[in-house]
Amino acid sequence: xxxxxxxxxxxxxxxxxxxxxxxxxxxxxxxxxxxxxxxxxxxxxxxxxxxxxxxxxxxxxxxxxxxxxxxxxxxxxxxxxxxxxxxxxxxxxxxxxxxxxxxxxxxxxxxxxxxxxxxxxxxxxxxxxxxxxxxxxxxxxxxxxxxxxxxxxxxxxxxxxxxxxxxxxxxxxxxxxxxxxxxxxxxxxxxxxxxxxxxxxxxxxxxxxxxxxxxxxxxxxxxxxxxxxxxxxxxxxxxxxxxxxxxxxxxxxxxxxxxxxxxxxxxxxxxxxxxxxxxxxxxxxxxxxxxxxxxxxxxxxxxxxxxxxxxxxxxxxxxxxxxxxxxxxxxxxxxxxxxxxxxxxxxxxxxxxxxxxxxxxxxxxxxxxxxxxxxxxxxxxxxxxxxxxxxxxxxxxxxxxxxxxxxxxxxxxxxxxxxxxxxxxxxxxxxxxxxxxxxxxxxxxxxxxxxxxxxxxxxxxxxxxx
Length: 466
Prior knowledge:
Helices cover about 40% and strands about 20% of the residues. The protein has helices at about 20-45, 170-190, 210-215, 245-265, 275-285, 290-300, 320-340, 345-350, 360-365, 370-380, 440-465; strands spanning about 5, 10, 50, 55-60, 65-70, 80-85, 90-95, 100-105, 110-115, 125-135, 135-140, 145, 155-160, 160-165, 200-205, 225-230, 235.
C-alpha cells in the first residue's frame, strides 16, 4: 500500500532517503553523457602529419647529409631521426641538432643535418623521421643512400662467394686474390662449422691515407685489413709493390676468417682478442717459423705476455714489433689448442660463445676455463708464469691524531672496527598461522566506522532539508 505525500510517491513513510537516489542517478547520467560527447571530440580531429619523401646524400669521405620535410596541423611535440643500422633490425634514434629543424613560411617543417661520425664505404645508410603530436607518433617514409668511395676508378670482379673491388694491379692480381679468398672462406667455414650468409665485398686500397679514410679513425694504427661484418665487407691495404708478394695470400684469408668467426658467434659477441686474431692467423698464414721464433725469443728475454693480457688491444710500439709478437703468441696458443683438443672441440667452443661468456664457453667445450688454458699454453712453450705488474698498495703514512688503532701495515687492509651494540626495537609478534592480521582488522574497522558516520551525517542532513 502506498500513500501520497507532497505530490510524490514513496514506498515507505521515510521521505528523503528514497527520493535522493533519482537525483544522483540523473546527475551521474548527465556526467556520463557529457564525457561520451567529449571523448570522440579528442580524437575526431586527429590528423597525422604528411611527409614528403626525404633525401640522403653521401660525399665520402665527407659525411652523410639528409633533408626531410613534413606538414602537421597539430603542433609537433617531438621530432626524431630514426636511423636503421646496417645488417640488423636495430635502430638509432636521435633528435635533430641545434638549428637543424625550422618552420618555413608556408607552415611546413624542414629537417636538415649530417652525421658527425665516419661511415665506411659500402654501407647502406637508411633514415626516416618520427613526429610525435598530441594525437600520437607517426613515421615518415624511409630514405637511403649507399655510401661509396668515388675517388678511384674501381674495377670489379666476382667469384662464387666474393666480390673484389680494386684500382691498382691487373687481371692477374684479381684472379689470385679471388682464388686465395675462396680457399680461405672454405677453410674457415669448415674449421669453424658455419657458413657465411651472403657474398663478401673486398675493397683493396693501394694508398695508406685512403685506406684510413675507409676504416675510420678508431681503427688500430698498424691495421692493414679491417672487416665490417654488419655490411659483409672488409678493407685491405695492399700497396703496388705488394701486389705480387705473399702478403696477398696472408691478408685476404685472414680478414675473411674474421668474418666467418663473427658469423659463427653472432653480432656483438665479445671473443678474447688473442683467440679472434689467433684463429684468423692460424686459418690464414698459419703458425710460421718466424712466429715460433718470436715466441721463443719472448720466453728467453722475459717479455712474453700471458693470454689474459691479450684479451683487449694488442700492445704496440713505433716499429710494430710488439704487435707482431702478440700475433705470434695468439697463433701459438691456437695451434696448441688444435693439437691438445682437436678441431671439433674448437668448433664447439666457437658455438658456445654465441650464448655464454668466455670462461663458461671454454669450460663447456674444452673442460678448462680461460685461466687454466692460459697456464697450460705457457707450460707448452716452457714459459714460467710471468710476474704480474699493476697497481700496488700505497705505503703507510702518518695518521690524524684522532684516529684510533695502530697504523695499517703496507699491503694490508686495516682491521674492521668493533661494532657498537645498539638497542634494536623488538619486532611485533607475528600473526598465528591461519589467523588474521591485526593491523588489517584495525584498518578495515576504522574505515567501516568512518563510512557509517559519514552515512549517518548525510542522512541527518537530508532529513533536515526534506
